[in-house]
TrEMBL record:
<dbReference type="InterPro" id="IPR012336">
    <property type="entry name" value="Thioredoxin-like_fold"/>
</dbReference>
<dbReference type="InterPro" id="IPR052259">
    <property type="entry name" value="Nucleoredoxin-like"/>
</dbReference>
<protein>
    <recommendedName>
        <fullName>protein-disulfide reductase</fullName>
        <ecNumber>1.8.1.8</ecNumber>
    </recommendedName>
</protein>
<feature type="domain" description="Thioredoxin-like fold">
    <location>
        <begin position="356"/>
        <end position="450"/>
    </location>
</feature>
<dbReference type="Pfam" id="PF13905">
    <property type="entry name" value="Thioredoxin_8"/>
</dbReference>
<dbReference type="GO" id="GO:0047134">
    <property type="term" value="F:protein-disulfide reductase [NAD(P)H] activity"/>
</dbReference>
<keyword id="KW-0520">NAD</keyword>
<feature type="domain" description="Thioredoxin-like fold">
    <location>
        <begin position="42"/>
        <end position="119"/>
    </location>
</feature>
<dbReference type="InterPro" id="IPR036249">
    <property type="entry name" value="Thioredoxin-like_sf"/>
</dbReference>
<feature type="domain" description="Thioredoxin-like fold">
    <location>
        <begin position="511"/>
        <end position="570"/>
    </location>
</feature>
<keyword id="KW-0677">Repeat</keyword>
<keyword id="KW-0560">Oxidoreductase</keyword>
<feature type="domain" description="Thioredoxin-like fold">
    <location>
        <begin position="191"/>
        <end position="289"/>
    </location>
</feature>
């Protein structure tokens, strides 16, 4: 943090003129501890309510602390609505100069909050914490005076004393509940590894449990059957009791009771703000955090994530290798009742009918120009490969934002192969498991279900259907079989051209060293490079007459090609 932000007279920032806050003079802040609350009406109301509770309690105890609201609202009406519930002071909305000066000085919001509480101690003339909201949310009144020093003192003490009991027991409760409503003492979990499942009840489209819940339940079952000391504790985030009860009824593990204060306390303690939820956090037998994002492993590996137990570094490092060894076409493409891909006119093709075939997964997006341009090439290669091997299939996987793109299905109608349905939950799983980060990615799955390559697009561009089945060995074979004639001869076009229409048979160039110059007149790089290449060409020719350059024009029109080629002393591929 820049030094000028820490050593600064914040009161002077508030004082552009001699004015007051609702008849409270700015000078009344001299020598006091106070916080600048930079926020707007759209900010998370829970945090604002927490701050109000803390402020009121500190005021009732006579502690030295004030808050000044610095509005980020866009209009005075929303400012008045938001400020009406606040028991503290505010910079008047009309004083836009002061508000902008404070916003500019203290910068953008932090990673954790779309708002700031800047804590200032006027007695020493220093900002003592720019993340005061973090301290308030996590430790409440106990965080006072909300300095960085106090925050880290509390952090160190909490980590030192952290245990399953300190996390799960509250003054009013020392038990959890099972799905039949019976109580289970927290002490029964001692010595176990426990996954805290921070959960919203968001049923799938058929009204059943969501995917994370289903997979975690299968992992739980496997670990229990293996006799492992493992438990899951549900931390419910729903505010609807029937939704909570409905969700818990389908789960085999324990839960914190509905609307228990411990749920919110755990969210604050682990700093799991809305964009982190839902999540699965693993706590070791010693009460310390072992794994912060087990849900990510579940996303990446599905049920196989159970093999990460007991979550040691060694086991976590082995998981990718185990996943590759265990991979099958069905493990990739089957998720519960979703055990099929689709064809045209509503046809459903069971995944089991594709087992034993070579499958190319085409990850594409309708809105991608690259995918649109690549499609004809892939269709041509598809038909050629199918004639060579009927046990080959392509499956289109519509990516990312295409789930709501009305053009996605129309894009599929142009394809002669199968597809994963648009919006299907398996799409994200495939992207995670196969580490697909870009559109127009083509992953080839062999007959055994193992990945042959995740870069078939490059092989297809270079070698077309000859690249099949896209293995490293096959690509080497194709490259070894490459000849000058295979590159430059296409049917009757078995020559390159010189000046004045001269045709030079390609066979006359065989045995020479050939430099292929891919160029376009419209490219500034090509135009700038040409004089240098011409100079080097003549030097090399004097050393070795068996050297030649062949221009491969990428110009779209004949005139551009002829104009650029006229300045070159070598041959060009026929157009």
């Amino acid at each position: 943090m820049a030094e000028e932000k820490w050593h600064y007279n914040v009161v002077s920032l508030l004082s552009g003129t001699e004015r007051t806050f609702s008849s409270v003079a700015i000078s009344s802040l001299d020598g006091r501890k106070f916080g600048l609350f930079l926020s707007d009406i759209h900010h998370d109301r829970i945090v604002t309510d927490d701050l109000i509770k803390v402020y009121n309690q500190l005021s009732s105890e006579g502690r030295d602390f004030e808050i000044v609201f610095v509005s980020c609202d866009s209009c005075e009406e929303t400012f008045n609505m938001y400020f009406s519930d606040m028991p503290w002071l505010a910079v008047p909305f009309a004083d836009s100069d002061t508000r902008e000066r404070l916003h500019d000085h203290f910068g953008s919001f932090t990673e954790y909050y779309p708002a700031l509480l800047v804590i200032y101690d006027a007695a020493i003339g220093m900002v003592v914490n720019e993340e005061g909201l973090r301290a308030v949310a996590k430790y409440g009144v106990n965080g006072y005076p909300f300095t960085v020093k106090r925050y880290y003192e509390l952090e160190a003490a909490a980590k030192k004393e952290q245990s399953l009991r300190s996390l799960l027991v509250s003054p009013s409760r020392d038990y959890l509940i099972s799905n039949d409503g019976s109580k289970v003492a927290v002490s029964d979990l001692e010595g176990k590894i426990v996954a805290f499942y921070f959960w919203f009840n968001i049923p799938d489209k058929d009204g059943g449990p969501d995917k994370l819940t289903r997979v975690l339940a299968e992992i739980y079952r496997k670990l229990k059957e293996a006799g492992e000391s493992f438990e899951v504790v549900l931390v419910p985030l729903d505010d609807n009791k029937s939704s909570y009860e409905q969700g818990l009824a389908s789960m085999p593990w324990l839960a914190i009771p509905f609307e228990d204060e411990g749920c919110e306390r755990l969210i604050r303690y682990f700093e799991l703000w809305p964009f982190h939820l839902p999540t699965v956090l693993v706590i070791g037998a010693d009460g310390k955090i072992m794994l912060e994002n087990y849900n990510r492993l579940i996303d990446d590996y599905g049920v196989l994530a159970w093999e990460a137990f007991p979550f040691s570094e060694e086991q976590l490092d082995l998981l990718p290798e185990k996943a590759r060894a265990a991979q099958t076409l069905e493990s990739l493409l089957v998720a519960g009742d979703l055990d099929y891909v689709i064809g045209k006119e509503g046809l459903k093709v069971p995944v089991k009918e594709l087992v034993g075939k070579t499958i190319l997964l085409f990850f594409a997006m309708n809105g991608s120009i690259r995918c649109q341009k690549f499609l004809p090439m892939l269709i041509e290669a598809y038909h050629k490969i199918k004639r060579m091997d009927s046990a080959f299939e392509v499956i289109y996987v519509p990516m990312g934002g295409m789930n709501t793109d009305p053009g996605a299905f129309e894009f599929f109608l142009r394809m002669p192969w199968l597809a994963v349905p648009v919006g299907d939950e398996r799409i994200g799983s495939l992207e995670n498991t196969l580490e697909v980060g870009y559109v127009n990615t083509m992953v080839v799955i062999g007959p055994t279900g193992q990945t042959i390559t995740n870069n078939a697009a490059t092989s297809l561009e270079r070698y077309g259907a000859d690249a099949y089945p896209f293995s490293g060995e096959r690509i080497k074979e194709v490259e070894m079989a490459q000849t000058l004639e295979s590159l430059l001869v296409a049917g009757d076009l078995d020559y390159v051209i010189g000046k004045e229409g001269l045709k030079v048979p390609v066979k006359e160039l065989v045995g020479k060293t050939i430099l292929l110059f891919f160029s376009a007149r419209g490219s500034g790089t090509c135009r700038g490079f040409l004089p240098h290449l011409i100079e080097e060409y003549h030097k090399i020719k004097r050393m070795d007459s068996a050297f030649e350059v062949v221009n491969i024009s990428m110009d779209k029109d004949q005139d551009s090609f002829e104009e650029f080629f006229s300045g070159m002393p070598w041959r060009a591929a026929a157009r």
